[in-house]
Design goal:
The structure is a homodimer of 296-residue chains. Chain A has 296 residues and is α/β, with parallel strands linked by helices. The first copy, chain A, folds into two domains: 84 residues, Arc Repressor Mutant, subunit A (Orthogonal Bundle), CATH 1.10.10.10; 203 residues, D-Maltodextrin-Binding Protein, domain 2 (3-Layer(aba) Sandwich). Chain A is built from ten helices and ten strands. A six-stranded mixed sheet of chain A has the order 4-3-5-10-6-9. A two-stranded antiparallel sheet of chain A has the order 1-2. In chain A, strands 7-8 form a two-stranded parallel sheet. Chain A is rod-shaped and about 100 Å long. The model of chain A has no long low-confidence stretch (mean pLDDT 90). The structure holds a DNA duplex (30 and 30 nucleotides).
Amino acid sequence: MTKRSLPPLTALRAFEAFARLGRMTTAADELCVTHGAVSRQIRSLELSVGLPLTEGPRHRLKLTDAGERLAASLSGAFDRVERTLADLRSADAAELHLSCLGTFAMRWLIPRLGTFHDQHPGLRVRVTESFAPADFARERYDAAIRLTEHVPAHGGEAIAFLDNFHGPVAAPQLVNGRPGVKAFAGLPRLHTRPHLQAWAEWERHTGLSLPEAPQNREFEHLFYMLEAAVAGLGVGLSPFVYVAADIEAGRLAAPVGFVRTPAQFYLILPPGPAKPAAAAFRDWLLDEAGSVPVPS
Amino acid sequence: MTKRSLPPLTALRAFEAFARLGRMTTAADELCVTHGAVSRQIRSLELSVGLPLTEGPRHRLKLTDAGERLAASLSGAFDRVERTLADLRSADAAELHLSCLGTFAMRWLIPRLGTFHDQHPGLRVRVTESFAPADFARERYDAAIRLTEHVPAHGGEAIAFLDNFHGPVAAPQLVNGRPGVKAFAGLPRLHTRPHLQAWAEWERHTGLSLPEAPQNREFEHLFYMLEAAVAGLGVGLSPFVYVAADIEAGRLAAPVGFVRTPAQFYLILPPGPAKPAAAAFRDWLLDEAGSVPVPS
DNA sequence: TGTTCTTGTGACTTCACCTCACATGAGACG
DNA sequence: CGTCTCATGTGAGGTGAAGTCACAAGAACA
């Protein structure tokens, strides 16, 4: 690949505008400069190319043959770039890139996305799983969903769209209808590695404490832990929204109910004007969250 | 035709170089700037396009999908312009545009051009007829041929490549073998409108004067006057080189010979570096003129 | 002949772009 | 692990390319 040797590009742009519009004055208007600037640019281009590009008297300048050919080439080239940029922008506008807690995506978001797609058939939603604090400077998302107490100031919008409640859950056959914390007596305690302090927080929030567990099991993700709870491996602590469907379906039981946490589910938007797709998603999300049942 | 909306072109160029070369440092070298400049340009382009174009850690930056597509489009566009410019330049280099005295072209230059074409098969010579003083600012020629005493200073080269001799000529049957100026007694005098003082100059140069003419005839061009002389319409005054072939062939007679004029034939080159075709023409012309016979 | 329209151009000005120097962050290598 | 290197990010500040302004020039039209 050899080094490019192109004349000054601003001169090319000025010349292309002149060729397209026929007069320097008009071209200057389009470029938001004075006619003198265009005149100089074209002259410098002729010098740099080494060929005359214009000819004729001042008040009726025409292009030389070389000028015509260059202008045709430039128009095509600029058109091409312009079209590519428009394509990129519209492709981007038609896509919503969302950074989301993995479990929330699987247990809450994805099951409900159908109505969003119905409302916005042109929009594709791309969900990327992420637990780290949202950092729009490092990774470019159109929006992020996090469970947190406080969203660090980042210049953008942050909306708490859903309260969080958590509580212990286990397979119904293990609990066996016993009421209160005694329901969990003798059951192994399930933990998630990223949030090992979760049980302690719950005990602080409720003032309750579970019977001593005969065993503790750690899982890499909340999602795996919930699968384990459903499979009867012990008692897990989960946000309500992740298990609402399982409780409804009788796959999990929550004998002591759920308690609200200080943390909430936030929709976090990057700084600057939100793109239309993100705004649409925000509206849909708030509407959808508004109709979510709250635990007893 | 709608107004163009393109991002800053220098940013596009920087981005294209980066995309092509893979690293900002290398791109900066190609563009003869520092890496910082390229970094800033690419950042400003991302801002102006509204899309991220690069991603990944600093030391191993990659293009995003959007970046790849834009880069491909830009490469194509720049290639196209570059190729057009190269075509224009080579087409121009293969052509020699010569501004020449019409009669000189017809009577001297064109008959000899064959050997020039033999020596430079790739070069096309375009001859434009012109009598006005050479003015490269108004009209773009690669070279001009003029008959003059002094070439006005114009910043370029001017080479006297051929001395000029002039003298009266007429059809041989009119002259009828008589010697000296008496040969022309009773013949009409032929003039050219652009140079009505020619006869007076000749008389001054030679100290001779022709017998009173019964008639004067004016022609628009020297070329027409020579045709008239050959046709026997009278006695004309002509530079030697224009009639050498006619005298040789016996179509014209020059009973009093030719006298050198202060004016010479000049090859005049425009200011600035001569293009190769013009240099080749100059060399050929000097060589060709060196072997021209001088009148007695 | 004067008026208007358009481009060319000398003199001056300014801000876009560049450079410099340092910071940052990720590998690589003892 | 600490340090070295390599590539890019960035704040501060300098400068020349490119623009502005005002006037000149040249052609057309009334």
